Amino acid sequence: MIFINVMIVGAAKTWCVAKEGADTQALISAINYACGAGADCGPIQPGGLCYNPNTIQSHASYAFDSYYQMKKQADGSCDFGGSATIVNTEPSYGKCVYPSF
């Protein structure tokens, strides 16, 4: 008889970001939804650690991920009308640290 010892370190981390080429108006609406529904959008406000680059795409990615993590990565919490996608590569940069579950 052969026994195999398997150690599970944990599930791979995931983040929710804006899809490349997503419609700008759709991203703006989705940012407003995420921030209004409890996402921590302080870091994407002027002076915040994630304000720059000051682009809709970048701000949407942070807001989407904050909402996704707040919802504990629940199914459907990274959709935003089809303008978001789940990634396995951490999107943090510089002092801007994206939340992770």
Can you give a write-up of this model?
By secondary structure, the chain is of the alpha+beta class. It is built from two helices and two strands. The chain has helices spanning 24-36, 56-70; strands at residues 15-18, 84-87. Helix 1 (24-36) runs parallel beside helix 2 (56-70).
Q: What class would the helix/strand composition place it in?
A: alpha+beta
| Major beta sheet summary | 2 strands, antiparallel
Gross geometry: globular
Count of DSSP H/I helices = 2
Strand line-up of the largest beta sheet:
1-2
Search tags:
alpha+beta, disulfide bond, 2 strands, 101 residues, signal, 28% helix, two-stranded antiparallel ribbon, cell membrane, single chain, X8_dom_prot
What's the short story on this structure?
Strands 1-2 form a two-stranded antiparallel sheet.
Topology of helices and strands:
Elements: E1 15-18, H1 24-36, H2 56-70, E2 84-87
Antiparallel strand pairs: 1-2
GO cellular component, one term: side of membrane
Subcellular location: Cell membrane
Organism: Cicer arietinum (Chickpea)
